[in-house]
Design brief:
Chain lengths: 49, 238
């Protein structure tokens, strides 16, 4: 097990970068879904009488 | 279970299998020992990065030719996911360089051109975030995306001509290039896993950009309807 600490650090880095990017994508998706919900409500309000 | 979750689970499983193979099946390298196992994910992340940047530049060219928004979405998806893979390569590289060379970083042609590439695509994303108008943003970022891609061939050839601190390429690197057959098989598995993750992320990023565009369209439709309604009400009062 020589130089194992470097391997472990690299291994963690790969997972952490992919994980945080996936989290960032999910956050942006949920913000847009909230926006869609808000727009739907606004559309209901602005429907011609 | 929807298709997005299923594909994410498949590539996460593939990553676990690839990790197991890199740790326990690949043979030990005599001088670097465990640090050499970084190679399997370091090389794979570069391959995934090249694929993503090729997708991005295709989107940039196609947008400038057709002016279809979907190519702008392809361009930004490729650029952002390519930047993620480039970041992984730039983190794992020094972690391998320290035990192999005794230093974390050196400004040799391969490392320098790669760092410049990372900065260029970061600038591409910053540039996009600064332009509000959809058409203008797509046009400017397509032009900048092509400019940024010019560094990709430089990265590829940087350790093929002349001596560099970075090792010579293992594949397509001449008569002395190549790896042990087991190492080669494990590398192929890791390549499949990382390119699989990159593909899933790229498709997600494309969907996100499409949704953002649709939300923008819907907002402008609602705003124009509200304006119409207000002007109609004002006219009725008069």
């Amino acid at each position: 097990m020589k130089n194992f600490q470097y391997l472990l650090a690299a291994w963690i880095a790969v997972w952490v970068v992919f994980f945080f990017y996936q989290v960032s994508l999910s956050r942006r998706f949920s913000q847009l879904f909230d926006e869609v919900k808000r727009l739907k409500e606004r559309l209901k309000d602005s429907t011609p009488d | 279970m929807n298709r997005r979750v299923a594909s994410s689970l498949i590539v996460a499983g593939l990553m676990c299998i690839a990790g197991y193979a890199a740790l326990f099946i690949a043979p030990d390298e005599r001088t670097m020992h465990d640090a050499q196992r970084i190679f399997y994910f370091h090389v794979s992340s570069w391959v995934a990065m090249f694929v993503a940047f090729f997708v991005s530049v295709f989107g940039c060219f196609a947008y400038l030719t057709t002016r279809s928004q979907r190519y702008d979405w392809i361009g930004v998806a490729g650029a952002e996911v390519g930047l993620v893979c480039c970041t992984i390569g730039l983190i794992t590289g020094p972690l391998w360089g320290k035990p192999a060379w005794g230093i974390w970083w050196t400004w040799d042609p391969r490392l320098t051109t790669t760092f410049v590439l990372w900065l260029l695509y970061l600038a591409y994303l910053l540039l996009r975030s600064m332009v509000e108008e959809t058409e203008k943003r797509a046009r400017i970022s397509a032009v900048f995306g092509i400019f940024a891609f010019l560094d990709v061939p430089l990265v590829y050839v940087s350790n093929r001509f002349g001596r560099t601190q970075h090792p010579a390429p293992v594949f397509f690197g001449g008569p002395n290039a190549g790896v042990d057959p087991t190492m080669g098989k494990v590398l192929l598995l890791c390549l499949a896993a990382v390119v699989g993750v990159m593909t899933v992320l790229l498709l997600d990023r494309y969907r996100l950009e499409r949704l953002r565009y649709e939300v923008g369209l819907l907002t402008s439709v609602i705003e124009s309807r509200d304006l119409d309604k207000q002007s109609r009400t004002a006219r009725e009062r008069v």
